[in-house]
Amino acid sequence: MELDLDRCTGCRLCQLVCSVTNFSENNPKKAGIRVVSKLFTDARYDVIVCDQCGTCADVCPVGAINMDEGVVRIDADTCTNCGVCIDACPNGALFSHPEVAHPIKCVACGECAKYCPRGVLDALAGLRKVAS
Amino acid sequence: MKVTVEMSKVLVSVRPGLAEMTEVELPEDATVGDALAAVGLPQGLWGIVVIGDRVGSASTRLFPGDRVTVFPPVSGG
Amino acid sequence: MRTMHGYAGSILRVDLSTGVASAQPLAEDLVNAYIGGRGFGAYLVYREVPPGTDPLGPGNKLVVAAGPFSGVFLPSGSKTSFSAKSPATGLYGDSNIGGHLAGELKYAGYDAVVLEGRAPVPSYLFIEDDKVEVRPCEKLWGIGAIKTEKALKDELGDEFQIATIGPAGENMVVFACVNHDIGRQAGRCGMGAVMGSKNLKAIAVRGTKGVPVADMSALRKVAGEMFSALAANPALKVWQDQGLAQVTTWSNSIGALPTRNFRQNFYENADALSGERMRSDIHVRDKACFACPMATGKYCKASHRGESVFLEGPEYETTALIGSNCGLGSIEEVAYANYMCDELGLDTISAGNAVAFTMECFERGIITKEDTGGIEARFGSLDAFVEIAKLIAARQGIGAPLSRGVRAAAAAWGGGSEDFAIQVKGLEWSGYESRGAPSMMLAYMTCDIGAHHNRAWSVTHDIAVGRNVIEGKAAKVVELQHVRPLFDCLGVCRLQWVELGLPLEYYARLYPAVTGRDDTWEDLLLKSERIWNLVRAFGVRERADFGRADDQPPRRFYTEPVPDGPLAGSRVTREDIDRLLDEYYDLRGWDRDGRPTVKTLERLGLADVAAELLAMGRIS
User: What are the residues whose beta carbons fall under 8 Å from the beta carbon of C75, sequence distance 6 or more?
Assistant: First the structure.
């Protein structure tokens, strides 16, 4: 998945949109996406978000994580919040939050991509595969 | 050549009386500045100009059929 | 505790002397009367900093406040206000800052932080949700503002939002600023000096909570419309391209660009300082404040004498006050000087103004190379700028008198320099030379914190109505002095409205959606007028002689016509100044000496303030 990172301005609207859409909250830390400033070192921003690679699904000890039409989802009822998936994620794209009993990850809803003022996230919307 | 000068809604709201859309006849090598003078918009009362989707300035050369959209002056913090 | 929609619901008080922090519930009365942000700052500073308090002593209070729109799903809810008694003016001062701090304060659970006393050793304030600590940090003292931010980010993590001061703030230069997110500043009024006087090197905050809003569905609808309207605006691209740097060319074309210490207002080299040159010569990346599509921040790279630096900037004000005002030759030179000021922690507006003043005094022989320690302080010299800025930050040599502001430096140097110390109330004049724009002249004269443009910006009003017209212009200034600072109370940036024409109706609809309160826009404007008068009352209470005499422009502007450029010959006259002020005071319901009347204060719900001033014999 190629995000157009060169265009990212670090505004973090994506985090806010994710929180509003998926948690009905104004809380950028309750989101499945993060913008990290690398200005000091590389004069750029990084976007940390799930690319639905499925590594977390492979390592989950209780089988709470499964692929569903191209999107890797965590079943909140099965998850024990053990955090193994968070450590295993190669992108660091699983996030824990004190008020949420399971890791938060992107489910490719595509809302952030709609709002990104620079079109950085268009590739995310394409990850959801519609069953034919 | 014919060029269209369009006042943005914002500009019209702060300068009532300006025609929203005017077609002007200009020489072949006319600039944005010439177009705005042709519609009588005083210097200092326009700020940003967009031609199609290109940003321009007073000296930007125009081509037949160009649509010049005019915005109020920038305001500063 | 009942939920206060739009607010975290708490004010954090930190006594730096003892290290004790306590979170107090946000009072409904405070919200109802003062909204948030600058409103909280004005109220708390008025109430808690009595007349005669040393602005650089432990009795001053620094209020750092977000507003109800901060951190919420809407365009650019990103603004924090810093308020205190100003060491530059001895009056109430505030400065707002963009970046990503405002929301983070609320996510941590605080609408405002009130900093009191003085830490016994250099310290930084650590806030992570409910965990609040005053942490000693002697190793950071003396380090540049940007380097300090990097050090704290490295230690605490990128999710912390950090505000810092540089050596200028540590040394209490009266125009020291607060830095954040590399290149954003609370620039004016010496808020960095107040932090330095409290031995407070930085504030670091991270929060994990959400901001409650009254009607999420309505908010999503209004904010969605706003984001769509912005995305569809053809002018957005210009802002994304050049940010505020585009103002330079326009300002020069209309004879408003400060040039050589405001002697001129048209700079022959303005093209070399243009937004286009910024973009082509030094630009690296666009940089945005929180949730902002405009991304007016320009991350740039500049080199000077073999040293390469990165900075956010320069934007218009810095380009005007350091570039044309000091006669510099290129945008890259301005950028390097900008970087120096940012690291030192100096407000670029005041620093540019102060260095230009020094250059004029030097060229006139009022000060000499002996005074400057060998620096050839001439217009056009970047080296001179850099050397003088360093001395100001250190308060050494020629920097010592300058570090107290141009008004103080002129008093020290004499030689008629008071006439061209370009300031009002002790705050250096910002980026619009206004001898050809009487309403903007009035705006600068009557701006509550001193000569700043961010309250009433009315240059185009003068162009539209007629530059020679004096009558009737005060009304526009008063109107703008209410609506523009309202955004500083709401904790949201106003540029989407001001520059891109996003209708004010959107903000009026946002207010009930976020807060659940039924204020109309007019109700909010009345609160802004209340705050304006409270700030004026601070001055009246502070000094028996505060009034009309503090609203005067520098003598240059009514004795020296503009020498050249498109507005050659322009100036205001003493009669103009008096007519403008008379009309302004009448409209405001103040007496002809510029003091609010009892009737006006009572109309604005400030009867207790009126009683206080009456008892002191300051008003009648």
Answer: C223, C226, C227, C230, C291, C292, C293, C492, C493, C496, C502
Distance CA A20, CA A22 (A): 6
CB pairs under 8 A between A and C: 81
CA distance B58 to chain C (A): 11
* Cβ–Cβ gap C247/B72 under 8 Å: no
Angle separating helix axes C504-515 and C216-232, nearest 10 degrees = 160
Q: What is the 3-state secondary structure (H, E, C) of C213-252?
A: CCCHHHHHHHHHHHHHHHHHCCCHHHHHHHHHHHHHHHHH
Is residue C437 within 8 A of residue C462, CB to CB? The reply is: yes
Instruction: Give the minimum alpha-carbon distance from C502 to chain B in angstroms, rounded to a whole number.
Output: 8
Task: Sort out which chain C residues have CB atoms less than 8 A from B53's CB and list them.
Answer: 234, 237
Is pLDDT above 70 for A131? Answer: no
C contact chains, 3+ CB pairs < 8 A: A, B
Looking from the CA of C117 toward its CB, the CA atoms found within 13 Å total: 15
Residues of B in contact with C237 (CB under 8 A): 50, 53, 55
CATH topology of domain A5-124: Alpha-Beta Plaits (3.30.70)
Both structure tokens of C505: 């109706």
Using CA atoms, how far apart are residues C453 and C474, in angstroms rounded to an integer?
Answer: 15
Q: Is residue C498 part of a domain?
A: yes
Please check whether residue C230 touches A, CB under 8 A.
yes
HSE-CB for C591 with a 13 A CA cutoff? 12
Q: What is the DSSP string of C47-99?
A: HHS-TT--TTSTT--EEEE--TTTTSSSTT---EEEEEE-TTTSSEEEEEE-T
Chain centre distance of CA C517 = 29
Higher pLDDT, A3 or C63: C63
> Looking at residue C372, what DSSP letter applies?
T
What pLDDT does A4 receive? Answer: 87
Which residues in chain B are closer than 8 Å to C347, comparing Cβ atoms? none
Partner-chain residue, chosen from B8, B53, B76, that has the shortest CB–CB distance to C431: B76
Do B75 and C500 lie within an 8 Å CB cutoff? no
Residue C395, Cβ density class (10 Å: 0-12 exposed, 13-18 middle, ≥19 buried): middle
Q: Give domain status of residue C423, yes or no.
A: no
Of C353, C384, C415, the one marking the end of a domain is: C415
Whether ipTM tops 0.90, in short, is yes
To the nearest whole Å, the CA of B26 is away from the closest chain C CA by: 24
Decide if pLDDT at A132 tops 60: no
| Cα–Cα distance measured from residue C113 to residue C125, given in angstroms and rounded to the nearest whole number | 10
Who has greater pLDDT, C325 or B41? C325
CA-angle at C550, arms to C546 and C555, nearest 5°: 150
Of C235, C244, C316, the CB nearest to B71: C235
> CA C275 to CA C273: how far, in whole Å?
7
Range of the domain at C88: 10-206
Looking at residue C256, the DSSP 8-state letter turns out to be -
| Contact assignment for C500 to B9 by CB distance below 8 Å | no
For residue C253, give the nearest of B8, B43, B69 by CB distance.
B43
C576-593 pLDDT per residue, tens: 999 999 999 999 999 999
Q: How many residues does chain A have?
A: 132
Question: Is residue C52 located within the same domain as residue C143?
Answer: yes
Task: Report how far apart, in Å, the C-alpha atoms of B57 and of each of A62, A121, B67, C275 are.
Answer: 63, 32, 14, 12
C208 close contact with A: CB closer than 8 A: yes
Q: What CA–CA distance (Å, rounded) separates A70 from A82?
A: 24
**Contact (CB<8Å) A17/C73:** yes
- Asked if A10 lies within 8 A of C287 by C-beta distance, the reply is yes
Domain boundaries, chain B: 2-70
Q: CATH assignment of B2-70?
A: 3.10.20.30
Residue C575 tokens, joined: 């009669």
Pairwise CB contact (< 8 Å): C293 & A28: no
